[in-house]
TrEMBL record:
Ranges of residues in domain MULE transposase: 23-121
Species for this entry: Arachis duranensis (Wild peanut)
Name of the protein in question: Uncharacterized protein LOC107483859
Lineage, top ranks: Eukaryota, Viridiplantae, Streptophyta, Embryophyta, Tracheophyta
Pfam families tied to this protein: MULE
Listed InterPro entries: MULE_transposase_dom (IPR018289)
Domain of life of the native organism: Eukaryota
Amino acid sequence: MPRRVFWTFPPCIEAFKHCKPLIFIDGTHLYGKYGGTLLMAIAQDGNTNILPIAFAVVEGETKEAWSFFLSYLRHHVTPQPGVLVISDRHKSIDVALNADDSLWKPPHAFQAFCTRHIASNFMTHFKNKDLKKVLINAAYSKSQWEFAHYFGHLRGENEAITKWLEEMPRSQWAQYADEDRRFGHMTTNISECINAVMKGSRNSPITVLVKSTYFRLREFFARKGSEAFAQLQVGAEFSQTLMKAIEFNSKHINTMNVY
């Protein structure tokens, strides 16, 4: 049995060229007779469709395993400049992304952390639900003055909290400082995608895993392709998600504040 296996499909590689320049990465344990860990990279298009673009089965979430996955991902699926990688704060991921020979470092690519995981780590260290909400508000703040308000609240309550946060570059966890690379994505949606794509297959041998992802993605591309074609047939120029945002903003423009 091979120690590690990476796979993707040509439609996934082509589709990523038309997705937002960001990916979500995470791993999940495989159970049953075969064991191991499944690593995945997920993208999202302009109509909020979640798309798995690469997979690997490895021995565990080690630095070597993540380096293997990220290297193949970069070379074969996401070679574009400026891609943002959103993940949890797993030490092995951070080490792999920032290794001397990594192609995932600025200015070629960028790194950001999932707010949900940061909040979970916060609770492990400080165990304060009220301040966790303040932390989340700080992370989601879209302007520097709004961020300063919540960050100042945290500093006033416990200076150790702000020291802990300052161990991370703000661009990696605070939305206002991300230079618009997140497109508003503050968490990883990987669990939902893993459950949808790998349902019933996580205790299977590698060959079955590969076939399962192939058939599920084939159905996904056929269904979403038909939906997109139907929109083009009626003359749509923009995605439905974008049109809803335009309509909402047009309706509420008189109540918006400019800072």
